User: What shape does this take?
Amino acid sequence: MNEINLLLNKSSHTKDDLIKLLSCSPGTETELILQKALEVKANTVGRKVYLRGLIELSNVCSNNCYYCGIRAANKSVERYTLTDEEVMHCAIFAWRQGFGSLVIQTGEQRGPRFTAYIERLLRKIHEQTNHELSITLSCGEQSLEVYKRWRSAGAHRYLFRIETTNKELYYKIHPHNRRHSFENRLQALRYLREAGYQVGTGVMIGLPGQSLSDLADDLMFFRSIDIDMVGMGPYIEHEETPLFAYAHQLWPVEERFRMGLLMIALLRITMPYINIAASTALETLDIYGRQKGILAGANVVMPNLTPVQNRKQYQLYHNKPNLDKDATLSTVSLSVIIKEIGETICLFKPGDSLHFLNRTQRDPIQQ
Ligand code: SAM
Assistant: This one.
């Protein structure tokens, strides 16, 4: 316990420190770390939560990640792409509810038609919501030119998970080819920075074969690339994927969940001013997952606005929650639970990453 306290009070942490902290036992030691993270959150970004309305725009995907339910080879998935009208309906709903911001996510798609489709949607959303929404894209690996075009059309932030920073593990969970190249993924993160986005990345926690040393490396990586926002969460198996064959090697659900919280907490402690999302995967493993994620240091939640009839076709993993709740219902329940845990929901605010604002003041060219 004393060692945990000593480590928590250090002003910066080495990889070894992080491994020791990640090795803490469940119960009091874990609680100490979570409490410290909440204290850091209160003193830096504040006890505030920003809402990002999530639109799962299309499940069409040309990649074959071994863990993902919407991978191209999964023929049992019915593919969909929302119409402009459906997207506008979600965007206007978010705007009227005061969400301040949207996340648009798709499977991996590339090419001039897709580029133009996203560009058109971005412009349309801004026109019809009085330019009052911030937009985060999560539309995968693209060229620098495409990232720049979407940035000019009004995308502010981009979320692109590295998935794991252990290259060997990366190639155990992805095919080893150009479409799934680890180097290209790193390059894409650099392109996003160059194109002027608030850049987000993240990893899956509790992958088969992943060690505490890997997770400590992930935390060190976020710091080394000076990331602005992170969305990370537990890996959850899906029967119709190749990685399911390794389900017997997984940490138990409670352990994956605890590691998910610890990763958020340690990230808040090591990068106090970034935005951190409480992922849907946390909520899948524990009904109070979102609240617990916020109390561990997260300050962003992403209520799902995807039309109810499409949600079951965007099943990245099994038991994804809120498949049948419409957006109004899930927003109401979210507001209640966030207030209950003593946090304030910030409506009508973009909720920019303070880390991003600080770094762009240091380096004004980035703005
Ligand atoms: N195509 C985009 C990309 O790759 O960045 C965004 C869509 S992708 C489906 C969004 C995220 O879902 C991935 O980055 C991955 O971390 C997560 N994901 C996919 N399958 C998962 C699983 N079985 N468990 C947990 N997270 C998963």
